[in-house]
């Protein structure tokens, strides 16, 4: 156990004061005490994800219950561990470490999903910013064995969106059959998910990226590493993909936009 000096008794957080509406409120919250296996993190950065809007407005049909009033949102947070709970002495993280909090805040580690390595669909998962207080606050609790260590070379502002948007597109790229050197088509390549997918696919995984988006996104998409940019508002994107790939087409297509038209293609 241990902590870094005196912590304030209260701190600021942002809550959904009227779930169902677009409405937030800054409130004072009581400092929580890390329980067994938990760490207390002083957050410095949080991403804002489109899913946060769905949770706030109760528009996410797949979630089991409406959001509670007073819930702290957010699920892409980075900060430093300032207090260790009982039983964390042997964990891989320690006081002062910079760590991240993800959409899935905690897993059980013992259900069939966890035991088969699919902890992302743990039957007993806790979701940050839904029924577990999230990252739109100055302090948050997380399990010592499930917070994500952030490498020293990665700034916190760049690390925060990796914890949901980054991992979402990385997972999709890994699960697609595409390998280094293969062409991949990214629909919505200049968006929140798309601009990360373009960088991860091209620079991180050595794939050849064809980015499709509206013309205003061309510079961004090319800066992110796309070899080919196609403006979907002009002409025939399918034909342009065939042309760019010498008639072969791409190994994988990722839809990274919420537009139904992109899925219908
Ligand atoms: Zn998210
Ligand atoms: Zn589980």
Automatic annotation (TrEMBL):
Keyword vocabulary terms for this entry: Metal-binding, Oxidoreductase, Zinc
Pfam family, one: ADH_N
Keyword ATP-binding: no
Domain Alcohol dehydrogenase-like C-terminal as annotated: residue spans: 192-263
Domain of life: Eukaryota
Domain Alcohol dehydrogenase-like N-terminal: 35-152
Family: Belongs to the zinc-containing alcohol dehydrogenase family.
Protein name listed in UniProt: Alcohol dehydrogenase 2
Organism whose genome encodes this protein: Rachicladosporium monterosium
Taxonomic path: Eukaryota, Fungi, Dikarya, Ascomycota, Pezizomycotina
